[in-house]
Amino acid sequence: MRLSRYFLPTLKETPSEAQIASHRLMLRAGMINQTSAGIYSWLPLGLRVLQKIETIIAEEQNRIGCHRVLMPTLQPASLWRESGRYDDYGKEMLRFRDRHDREMLYGPTNEEVITDIVRQYVKSYRSLPQTLYQISWKFRDEIRPRFGVMRGREFLMKDGYSFDINYEGAKASYEKIFESYLVTFRRLGLTAIPVQANSGAIGGNLSHEFQIVAPTGESMIYYDAAYDTLGDQDMTLARLQNLYAAADEKHDPYNCPIPLENVKTARGIEVGHIFYFGTKYSKAMNLTVQGPHSETIIPEMGSYGIGVSRLVGAIIESSHDEDGIIWPTSVAPFHIGLINTKIGDERLDKIAEELYQTFQKQGFDVLYDDRNERIGVKFADMDLMGLPWQVVVGNKTLDQKTLEIKNRKTGERQDLSFEEGLRYLHHHLGTL
Length: 432
Ligand code: P5A
Prior knowledge:
- Helix content is about 30%, strand content about 30%.
- By secondary structure, it is an alpha+beta fold.
- It folds into 2 domains: about 5-320, Bira Bifunctional Protein, Domain 2 (BirA Bifunctional Protein, domain 2); about 335-430, 3-Layer(aba) Sandwich (Rossmann fold), CATH 3.40.50.800.
- The strands form 6 sheets. Strands 3, 7, 8, 9, 10, 11, 12, 13 and 16 form a 9-stranded mixed β-sheet that branches. A 5-stranded mixed β-sheet has the order 20-19-21-22-23, sandwiched between helices.
- A hairpin with a 5-residue loop joins strand 5 and strand 6.
- It is elongated, with a radius of gyration of 25 Å.
- '5'-O-(N-(L-prolyl)-sulfamoyl)adenosine (P5A) binds next to strand 8, strand 13, strand 16 and helix 8.
- '5'-O-(N-(L-prolyl)-sulfamoyl)adenosine binds near residues 109, 152, 202 and 304.
């Protein structure tokens, strides 16, 4: 991508409405634009990140045998009357009527729609277990939308739904998703702590949230200090051994299994939430299947959510510095930012142009800053955007035939020959 032709409206001033780093940086880096309170448009740079996150989530869901569907955002009130949630849900649900005066709503979640689909087709225990998921926009008329995409009104969610013939099956489905979420968050460059949670409006009695520790998080979590030193494998073990971590509303200081000296508190960003709720929806909505002895079985269900658009903010909260964003490679909008420090110098223009072509041919996502801008502006914008690698061509390129390669995260710079530079980038980006 050539920056001179890109749509990247970066801001020099810090927008006054943004209270936390991720919101500020997303606006300044031209990733999003607010259309209305809690409702955002995704601009090209932001959309690239959102789509990379989506792809990783989908890959991990597919890997464990979940199947992707896409349900409508608009739903009939009648389905929610069947489950009994239409009156319970309150003002967070956006309700309206169509031209035939039928009551409709913009879905805040999809338990009803998926149960309706499954009850139409699944008639035998042989068709189960089954887990279906989608990645789609939800609307919740949050009373206090804030922090940009962190607490939006319209937001992108991955929501999955499992159907099993008994409790053991449902628990196994829940655990499979649980493990897979830890892998998913790790691939996104995050360490998520699973915590015991309340199931709120979704219902049920087994529920975990996945929390990213960050000072700007909206939840308070209580966890065993042992978590701080655990790797991913151990995280799974920790859960199996019931190493305690709880969200605020579930934490009872008088009945906490962690020895007092080990209790740590932190603020967390909830990036995922999973629920087991048994037959709550299947029973209310008459979903039944025939068992092996022709008996009637009411399937056991769970639902599993990831805040996809919230993750963009959460990743930035956990990875930035005073100059801007520091993207983990897996979700970076581009791998490499190529900076030509002397646009208009024929020799350098030619070298930069050739490098740009070579990078692309070799499979790198590269953003070429070919703007006729002051060099200070170029460096500042590149740091702000947070691409993992910066490649600078300038005087040294002409004099010594070297490239300067800067690692955005460590700030480390190296002067390497073209050949070495390419090898170095392939090595670090895992493309060789
Ligand atoms: C699970 C999937 C559910 O809705 N039904 C289907 C269940 N769970 S949840 O916890 O209510 O939401 C899942 C995740 O969505 C993100 N999220 C939000 N992101 C941005 N803005 C919001 N207003 C918002 N509300 C929820 C969270 O990451 C949450 O874990």
